Amino acid sequence: MTQKPILISGAGLASLLLARSLLRCKIPFRVFERDASLASRGQGYRLRLSSEGLNAIESALDPAAWKKFYDRCGKTGGGGMRIIDALTGEPIEQPPAAAAANSSSGSSDSDSLNSREGKVVGIARGDMRNLFMEGCEEFVQFNKHVKGYELTNDGVRAIFSDGTKSEEGSMLIGGEGINSYVARQLSNGKLKVYDTGARGIHGQAPTTAFKGLGEGVFRIVDNSKPNGTFAVITNVRSGDMDNPDTQFGWTMIGEPGVIKAPNDDYTIVGETASNIARELTKDWNPKVRPLFTESNTSEGAFWKITISTPSGVPEWPNQPRVTVIGDAAHSMTPAGGLGANTAVRDSALLGRLLQNGYYEGATADYEKEMRVYGSEAVAKSYGMASKMFKIHIDEDKSTTMEGEVRDNRSSA
């Protein structure tokens, strides 16, 4: 191959799926990941895949890889999202007007959850990354933290945190999440990420803890706290229910002020996060409390809920050699489970444009289309989150994220 490689910053979901697309088309590439391995940090919780997300993944992978991926996915029945009162353990029946509103926003309508075969399709983030990584191992370099880039006469180089530089590439794709230095440099600061003030805790528990719920996708809501509402979202798959080696994940999300980490340190994992989740749910009904009392203490993790500019993906002067994908371009709240699904759409789109290698208009063609669906997804996520978590972003006054923070995770 005489082509210069396509350089990819970050080894998250969007980056690795793009890498697989390039591998399939025999386009040379290099991936630079700041961590020591894919297992260096917690992977976040289970991801729900929409029809658009599944279609994007299927288009990027070869048929054998797609079959392996889809076979690994869990398929949940149960008729869409069910809302449970945390204190009584009983279903919350929505008034017709509220149900219609939620249906139009995509927050509880079963059709919006089901993606194939009439089922909710999901997969653990860690499994997803590992599957996308297959075949790309020799082209991924770990302990390489990209802090910027420099343009050359007919290419681009990534600049690493230790001052060294990559080989010259034909283009650079920033896919390193909400802390993307590539995004900051490319957009001259126009790509921003805001702290919504809402906070979450992720955990996992053995399947036995979920017996009281049965199969389905659930939102367990607690309105009893004086400082605001919080809820837990979980996905229970009947096919795995009796497997003692399987754990189901749960994600707790609270309005600003409900969930507080010690010293405001949301990078904490393990016992501290798990114990706070148990304390918050100590009065919950025995039907749902085992999710927390039986949870795997080491898997507890805090996270900040962030979002990029709610008014849409901003415009910046196009750079033919550099662009961004995934959370680096459009981070979202967990509401609606849109983040990961939009990220893999980026990968599929850019991979399709680059199937014959780099060309001068590639980033312009990609950004034109990405801004449309990316902006729609951010707006939808923000609209749902503002109702669910009572958040508000004033783009002129709200605080943007600074420095290193825990990765944003997209909803299951």
Automatic annotation (TrEMBL):
Gene3D superfamilies: FAD/NAD(P)-binding domain
Family matches, as InterPro entries: FAD-bd, FAD/NAD-bd_sf
Low complexity: bias regions: 97-113
Protein's organism: Aureobasidium pullulans
UniProt keyword annotations, A-Z: FAD, Flavoprotein, Monooxygenase, Oxidoreductase
The protein's name in its UniProt record: FAD-binding domain-containing protein
Region entry Disordered, spans: 95-117
Limits of the FAD-binding domain: 140-362
SUPFAM superfamilies with a match to the protein in the record: FAD/NAD(P)-binding domain
Cofactor(s) the record lists: FAD
Domain of life: Eukaryota
Keyword rRNA processing found: no
